[in-house]
């Protein structure tokens, strides 16, 4: 554990650029020492997950950085906070927690972070170039950044993310090093029916299975014929990163590093092989629900990761002007909300009974009524976190099934309708 | 007998009853930051309180907000007396590093192979970053 700081880095840690930047440099250097990194490397951008309120200490830390004159040195987007600053949805958080959560969000803005407040920064145009080093937090954003964009990041936790953003540097270890990005296991889905792979739920269900089977090693998915599109890949990565500590996956023929190094990757991943069967998929899908066939549902939640504009278009098409019997919480970023507003699409959705949630989401802050209800979702990540974080039981289904069920107020599955 | 340990994060010598976790834990969602109680109903040590204990961790899993939960415990005076980990973790231990920057008294973190953790289970321990871990007489 011998991290060597340059004279410049040592001067910053000793306060040359102010006390806030000094704190940030000492935190980055300590993390480097802990993880056995030999040096710090420059990074191109950061995505900050640390502005979500977990208690007053995090607010006081951010305000200490502000008071010490710190500013982010690189492009830094913000992940969700605990409040919906757009006022779209009502957050059931009382003072003093509410005002401390607001102070925390304000402190991160004052540090120079962009007020994106989204877990899908890659859909707001924050897309680091292939091969660049960055420091990203939020598990789904990390896995998307590494896997789909081919930029290089470890899983940055609270405090280290903002410290890297302020110093513009990160410890050189883990997924920043090319040799640690090679796959060592194959996850083969070729035996699954093509008709299943073409469905929306194939991706979150496979992601959930992948995360549980593979954990934090790097895997290569084989047997996919064509690029399933960004929203499908986003759902796969988010589900994988919530069921296991997945930071990077490759898909043969689809993701950029796998396309560039096809031969080398196949060989490296060939030593260990998981052949995915329809029975494994059925079991993975069943595990996403914590209730079997309830007679009614209390709410539907979609948008983890945050919904893209395309996903809202699909939602509108499925809703087809109908009225919902139970609320459908649609979580998204303010960048999508502003387009919905501008195009006159928000009001019809809200009039139908959809609750748009911006800047935050239903599993990180209290929004849904405090009951032991049944929540239906098409998100592998919501399915994973909702029982512990909200007290709701989870019923998993496709977006179409979620919409039909919200209209009926009871579970509707497509095989029932046929 | 004193078992020497590598220091992960410097901190004061401390004493407390050992709490040896037999499964990895996610601090976010797994430990209540207001009480220090292990809140994850699926964890084998569910219901135990980590405050003031010498906490042995075989591993950490889950959310990147573990550091925020640990910082909150430190500030509330509900942190473990010392933390003993199988391997360093760039997320959880940031809570101790930030606590020190904030001037809040924080426990030390030491490294010790998880195969040896069980030997300390339930014992009253004295922990010193300089000399290691010793069962009190």
How would you describe what is shown here?
- The complex is a heterodimer of chains A (418) and B (137).
- Chain A has 418 residues and is of the alpha/beta class.
- Chain A folds into three domains: 7-174, Aconitase, domain 3 (2-Layer Sandwich); 182-287; 299-413, Aconitase, domain 3 (2-Layer Sandwich), CATH 3.30.499.
- Chain A is 42% helix and 14% strand.
- Chain A is built from 18 helices and 14 strands.
- Chain A has helices at residues 7-13, 19-35, 56-67, 97-110, 139-149, 160-167, 194-197, 202-214, 230-243, 256-260, 262-269, 278-287, 309-319, 334-342, 346-351, 380-390, 399-408, 414-417, and strands at 40-42, 45-48, 75-78, 135-136, 169-171, 185-188, 219-222, 249-251, 273-275, 299-307, 328-332, 354-358, 374-377, 393-396.
- Chain A has a five-stranded parallel sheet, sandwiched between helices.
- In chain A, β13 (374-377), α16 and β14 form a beta-alpha-beta unit.
- In chain A, α2 crosses α6.
- The longest helix of chain A is centred in the first third of the chain and has 17 residues, at 19-35.
- The radius of gyration of chain A is 22 Å and the shape is globular.
- The model of chain A has no long low-confidence stretch (mean pLDDT 96).
- With 137 residues, chain B is an alpha/beta fold.
- Chain B has a single domain (2-135), classed as 3-Layer(bba) Sandwich (Glucose Oxidase, domain 1).
- Chain B has an eight-stranded mixed sheet, with no helix packed on it.
- The radius of gyration of chain B is 13 Å and the shape is globular.
- The termini of chain B are close together.
- Chains A and B meet through α2, α3 and α16 of A and α2 and α3 of B.
